[in-house]
Amino acid sequence: ALTFPATDIVSEIWGGKRARNLVYGGVCTYVITMILLSIATQLPAPTYWAEQDAAYSLLFTSAPRTLVASLTAMSISQLLDISLYNWIRGKTGNKFLWLRNNGSTLISQAVDTVLFYTIAFYGLMPNEALFSLLIGNYLLKIVFAAVDTPLVYAVIAWIKKDTPESTTQPQK
Fold first, then answer.
1. C-alpha span between 122 and 141 (Å, rounded)
2. Residue 159 needs a FRET pair 20 to 30 A away by CA distance; which of 28, 57, 69, 167 works?
3. Rounded-to-integer distance, Cα 60 and Cα 82, Å
4. Phi, psi of 2 (to 5 degrees)
5. What is the rounded average pLDDT of the residues 86-90?
6. Can you spell out the DSSP letters for the chain?
7. Which pLDDT score, from 0 to 100, does residue 34 have?
8. 3-state secondary structure at position 130
9. Closest Cα to residue 85, out of 134, 166, 19, 156?
10. How far apart are the first and last CA of the chain?
11. Which residues, in sequence order, are bridge partners of residue 15?
């Protein structure tokens, strides 16, 4: 949930291109981490760690569907958030930061929630339970989006105060 206000802040200060580069960097980091974890689970465990080895392997090898769901939902929803944020900014100019922050986040969080839970759990639980999980998680994200708005204002003001004007001009 913190990545949405973070990309909104980066979009506000430095523009959508830099925010998208953060997402691409996050995707690359995620993929590299998953590759390294896959390799690590295939390596033999030290003899003193025999009992924990099974739990470690189970944790990192039993959830490929969840990992795919997470990577898919994160990358699509973050890129959507940045696009929506910058589209709203194009319509409102420098006014209505709260609208850019909340509007883009509420829509992209809905996409994130639906993608993640559908990919990760569809067919593994009753549809009614999946729907309840989707709704409950999205409601929590709505609350967080409202609560993070003053933080977004504060961080943007702080960065603008401490950053020379020429480095804070948003780029498309």
1. 21
2. 28
3. 31
4. -75, -20
5. 95
6. --HHHHHHHHHHHHBHHHHHHHHHHHHHHHHHHHHHHHHHHHSPPPGGGHHHHHHHHHHHHS-HHHHHHHHHHHHHHHHHHHHHHHHHHHHHTTS-HHHHHHHHHHHHHHHHHHHHHHHHHBTTB-HHHHHHHHHHHHHHHHHHHHHHHHHHHHHHHHHHHHS-GGG---B-
7. 81
8. helix
9. 19
10. 24
11. 171
The rounded percent of the chain whose pLDDT value lies above 90 is 62
| Mean pLDDT of all residues belonging to the chain | 87
Task: Report the pLDDT value the prediction gives residue 113, as an integer from 0 to 100.
Answer: 96
Task: Give me the percent of the chain exceeding a pLDDT of 70.
Answer: 87
Span 14-43, pLDDT tens digits: 999 999 999 999 999 988 988 887 787 777
Rg of the chain in Å (alpha carbons): 19
Residues 120 and 126: their CA atoms lie apart, in Å, by 13
Contacts of 45 (CB under 8 A, 6+ apart): 52, 53, 56
Is the pLDDT confidence value at 172 over 80? no
Cα gap 11→52, rounded to integer Å: 43
